[in-house]
């Protein structure tokens, strides 16, 4: 059997995800997410945009100091000030620190936003990559709005930044405009036409404006992309980014047709989804693939019957594979600590002994007033009592 090719997972929940309206997180919250991403074994955590604010700088610095496994990226525009500031925060991660610098390459962005010519954009990109490479060899370059860029020009930019030292080159669909066949062709074109393309990791970064971010990312992988940028629950600017859990579980579930694998420990997916929505207050729609409340629920009698006889009749993956244990005990005023702790774990919470104790006291008080305690009640207790203090 041929070896499956490794696809790197670059999680940008803490940067692009945080750009989602209402998703801003404080430093402690970002650290909690970063620790869970570390456990999930993602390859890269983009922790923020250090020049954007003191808070973002501090969050990137703290994540760079605290996280040991994954690489830590910080975003910077293509100018010296941004790059220097990014490295100031990232240097604590040593060689795992990645400077991620970007400039737009589409006509529309060059004309209206940058007011720069093609030559100026290439020169600025090359200078930025060289500046970043002066700090670390771990440099990523993104051609913002790559999908709406004329392909021969995009190829020229990619060639120039590789020569300047970019170890990873990202081809974003910044506005979520492409469709799978088109994106496949863009990635294939770059693979086939850019000299020295093998010296870099080709990355993809899709937004979900047309609901195609995951499909586009998968098409790009099939065309030769080696890194996927994504977020937990697919949060991000406007309609969001490619959802980490969807792309990772598709690769895991369709090994028969997609000979790729990731390093992600998928059993932490449910916990990560839960923690993020508790922290941000952004609820996951019930029918959301993989992590929605209904993703493993069977309502129709015929489906229930089938699943009782043999799970694979209507389940293409197991709830356990994302860390969801479905054998639930009913919680009420007679329930003890053991059942309560088990439910916390099933919901993805990993709390200290002290926090469990606080939550348990609240649980008992509530159980005296209510017949049954639902998952939503526990989420509310944890959010109220622990996460937000
Ligand atoms: O969507 C985008 O183009 C980005 C880049 C900064 C990578 O987020
Ligand atoms: Zn983006």
TrEMBL record:
What processes in GO biological process is this protein linked to? L-leucine biosynthetic process
Listed EC numbers: 2.3.3.13
Give the binding site residues for Mn(2+). 16, 205, 207, 241
The alphabetical list of record keywords is: Acyltransferase, Amino-acid biosynthesis, Branched-chain amino acid biosynthesis, Cytoplasm, Leucine biosynthesis, Manganese, Metal-binding, Transferase
Its function?
Catalyzes the condensation of the acetyl group of acetyl-CoA with 3-methyl-2-oxobutanoate (2-ketoisovalerate) to form 3-carboxy-3-hydroxy-4-methylpentanoate (2-isopropylmalate).
Q: How does it assemble?
A: Homodimer.
The protein depicted here goes by the name 2-isopropylmalate synthase
In which organism is this protein found?
Answer: Trichloromonas acetexigens
Q: Name the encoding gene, please.
A: leuA
Interval of the full protein contained in this chain = 1 to 389 of 512
